[in-house]
What does this fold into?
Amino acid sequence: MRKKHVIFWDYFISNRFGGPTGYLAHLRSGLDGLELDREQKVEFFIDALPESEFPTGNKKQPPTEEDISKHIRYFENPDNFELSNEEFGRLTKRGPNSVHLHTTPLAYKVFRSFKRHGVTDIPIILTSHTPESNGKEMADQYRVHSIDDRACKRLEDAVRFIEALAFQASDIWIFPSIESMDPYYATIPKFSNWARNKDIRFIPTGASLPRMSVEKNAAKAKFGLAGKKVVSFIGRHNEVKGYDLFCSAMERVLEQQDDLAVLVAGPENPALPAPKRNNWIELGWYSFPGDVLAASDLFILPNKMTYFDLVLIEAVGMGVPTLASNTGGNVTMERLTKGVIRTFEPTPSILSAEILNFFHLSEEEVRAQHSKLLSLYNDLFTPVSFARGYVNLINQIYADYGMFK
It folds into this structure.
């Protein structure tokens, strides 16, 4: 009888998003396209909820004191960290031999529910996707909107407590690479202690090409940038994502080379406003990131800390030359692409110099980068490559733990 590996997710999956939502959508696509051996010993299930259960409203409003109070009450109440009977039934209906979770709160819910029901023989696998401590990330989303700092600290402490319990309770951690763990070592004080005796495995992420609304050769015209050289940024406008660094560097660049245009997608942040320049376009939240990448001559990923950004894989798949800060998964990508993805020390002076150097390359050198990136994507980062690596990893875990007996 085949063993059953269940990826359990309490939200929907969609390749329009990052984090677990996008990661699992790309994995699902890869598994669907992978011709698995009929004699395989493990069946793979991604158990997610339909997107229709999460209706989207109008533009998201800034968080309020009431919002943070709800979050605090939720994370400070241990009773919230067990699966409901319905959720537990959904998780166990296939008789899983292993379970993979993709956030620390959900992993801790599953751990407590297994303990309550006397389940001791199903290993819990955890992949966390945040670019830093989950507690710090959640609290900072309130801090940038000037929410009372005492409430932010209380929320951060509560989320960090759950995060700590989840990492310690999980049997196996899976990360995209060893470098993608760097933000956790940097922002979670005891992470190195928990990691010391933990079984940690690695599998690089893959991704589908991003959504586009126009043909690639029409992308610049869509944004009124036909004939322009375009530098782009995609992501939230905060310090972790490096938006402040990007702005500072591009201000320097535009002082020296004013024939460039800047194209930015991602939710704006009143604490980090965009420079007021005619050649600076802010799209806000944008549903077709492929349009932005297609319009780009150079993509910048200037994260202060990072995990393993899906947008970087998408840029590789679009063949867009990219400069990325030398942190986390960006370092992995520089290694895997043998330096075609270039990393830089994240300071405005260094980034601006790297950008200016790029625009002094010959057309032949730029075309060579484009060609190499497309080849690397097809070899390493497609959803099928991702799924194949994931299947092999889970099979190896089963073999190592004697789970095929």
